[in-house]
Each structure stands twice: as C-alpha cells, then as structure tokens.
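We now fix the convention by which a protein and its fold are recorded. Think of the row as the fold of the chain written in a discrete alphabet. Here is one such record, which you should read through line by line.
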Amino acid sequence: MTDGYLVAGKITGCYGIKGWVRIHAYTDPVDNFLGFGGWMLKQRGATRPIVFDAGKRHGKGLVAHIAGVDDRDAAEAFKGLEVLVKADVLPPLEQGEYYWHQLQGLQVWCHTEGEPPVLLGAVDYMIDTGANDVMVLKACEDSIDERERLIPYLEGDVVTEVDLERGVIAVDWFPEE
C-alpha cells in the first residue's frame, strides 16, 4: 500500500492505434477496475493521476483509453506501469473475507496436531493461479529457515485461521513442503 493507495492493476501493453491500453486488473471481478475512478499511476516511485475516459472488458482482461492520449506511440510510454486506487473506495467485505493487501506482512504459523507451532515466514505477496490464490512467504525473524514458500490459500483445508489483530495466519501445512 502506498499512502492510502493500492495497486489495482497494471498496464501491460497497447491496444490498437488510438491511445488504448491493455490492463491486467487485480480486481475480482475484473470489470470492477473500471468503476473505481480516481486512478493514479506509479512511475519511478512517484504517483500521478491518470484518467481512463473509456474502457471495456476484452478477453480475460480489460482495455481502456487514456484521456489525452490518441496514438499508439504515446500509449506505449505507459506499458508496465502500475495503476493505483484509493483503498477507501474498495467495497466492504463479508466477515472472514480479506483483501490481499490485508494479508501481506502477516506471519504464517504451521499448526500440526501433536507438534509445536512453527513459523514458516511472512506473506510477501499473493498470486492468482486461476485455480486458487497462493501466498508467497519470505523468511522473517524467527522463521524456521530462509526458504521462500508457496502455500495455497485454501480456507478450511490449508488456512485454518486469519487474525488481522494479532498479525497471524494459521495453516495446516508441512514445513518441509
């Protein structure tokens, strides 16, 4: 999160010759991205506003027109940039649901029956594999080792508890996996 802003998507390339770009949206459903407004671009550590004056779903992603950009060469300069939105524009979630940014930084503890809890690491970021979300863990102070781990975010099967106040996620997982 950057000063109250969250990464909502990334411009992945150009679409056509009239200033349209392809956007990989991190929203679910993808179309929600277009409804936010107030977008900001993240470029070289700084942010600046961007306006999409038209947009639509295209295949599995989105395409949108950048206001004031009317040719492919100008649109090319936006390729690879992240698009941010204010965190407070996100809709509230049901009890037990979490936005990815809320999980980042939480410690992940393995709780195997009959064994003492083991700290596997902290959530660095999340990825969407299509089948399910995956937590990418990085080693942290007091973690069992220095390995990066990929653990499926499967509520009930693997993830047994999320406690935002304590900053922990409990998992039923084998430390050597």
